[in-house]
Amino acid sequence: MSKLYSINRSDERWVISAPLIPSTKPDRQLRITAMHAVFNAIGYCLRAGCQWRLLPRNARAFWTVYGYFQVWQRSGTCQAIHGRLRGDLREPLGRRLSKGFEARSQTSEA
Length: 110
Hints:
mainly alpha; 4 helices; about 0% strand
C-alpha cells in the first residue's frame, strides 16, 4: 500500500480491521473501491481533524470516503473496529478491556 498520507494507518491495524468491514456494498454489489485506501483516508481525517473535502488530492474522492464512513457509522462497523483496535492495545498493557467506569456493586445500605 502506498503512503498517501502523512498519518497512514499501519498494516497491522488494517489486518485487524479488515475482517470487520463488509465484503459487499449494502446493495450486494461487489466493491470496486480499495477498502484499505478508504480505511487510511478515514483514519487521516479523524486523526488530523480535517474536513472531508481537505483530503489530499491524490486520495480517493472525498465523497466516496465520507459515504463509506457514514455507512460504517450506521452499521456499527466503526464501533467494532474501534473496539477491536482498543482491545488489542489495552491487553498487552495489562489493562481491562471494559470501557468506562464500572458500576459500583457495593452501595451504602443505610
